[in-house]
Amino acid sequence: MELLNPLDSDAMLLALRTAPFLWLGVTAACYLLAERLYERSGQFALLHPVLVSIALLMGILKASAVSYADYFQGAQLYHWLLGTATVALAVPLFDNLQRVRTLLWPLLLALLVGGLAGMLTALLFGKLFGLSPQVLVSFVPKSVTTPIAMALSQHAGGLPALTANVVILTGILGAMAVLPLLRLARIDSDIAGGFALGIAAHGVGTARAFQLSPTAGAFAGLAMGLNGVFTSLTLPALLRLWPA
């Protein structure tokens, strides 16, 4: 009697790509594993859960020969939830509305200095290392959240894919560096720390700020939103003024 042929590799790969909820579960498992590793390491900076989970997912996708497009199709619910989570930042901000009104002018000054510093440092280091104009433009909006940064990069003639990677790295490095720098400067205010995290490290910094306190998270969310608007308004003029 003829034996049944097993499923061929192409059919198995197709099933892997299209399995419902598979990549949602894989993404969640990678992040939970990375978060546990981060806590057990004593929150070692280089083992930040976002960085480790990205590395794990890259390895899994590479080993299973699944493209990012197929992965995103299976895990796009997280992309939708990201927008919902961003809107939800308005809730703790509303709870701190009176503080925002009281500190409005110092916060706007901090936004001006921090927002310009984020763009100018990219331009200065890009010029120092001899980056091409296209690559340089891709680096400049590194301190704002990914969708805004990619749109600004594309509009200015940069490479949106490169910008997305730079934004992610900026968020991780900023979340790791801001708090030690604040401690070094002997600044222990949740408002100052949260606002600095939001400006320097956008969404990743805001998530880190909520781990500190609801107040820090609220002001980080405020800073992230304001810096997105500020950068969108000032980046074109700054690039026109910057020597080619």
Compact description:
By secondary structure, the protein is mostly helical.
Account of the 3D structure:
The protein is mainly α. The chain is about 80% helix and about 0% strand. The protein folds into two domains: about 10-85, no CATH class; about 90-240, no CATH class.
Distance between the termini: 76 Å
Low-confidence segments, ≥5 residues, pLDDT <50?
A: 1-7
Compute the CA-based radius of gyration.
21 Å
Rounded mean pLDDT is: 85
Amount of helix: over 70%
Order of helices and strands: HHHHHHHHHHHH
The overall strand count is 0
What oligomeric state do the depicted chains represent?
A: single chain
Q: Any key phrases for this structure?
A:
244 residues, 0% strand
Outline the secondary-structure elements:
Elements: H1 9-18, H2 22-40, H3 49-64, H4 68-88, H5 90-95, H6 97-102, H7 104-128, H8 133-139, H9 146-155, H10 160-184, H11 190-212, H12 214-241
Helix pairs in contact: 2-3, 2-4, 7-8, 7-11, 7-12, 9-10, 10-11, 11-12
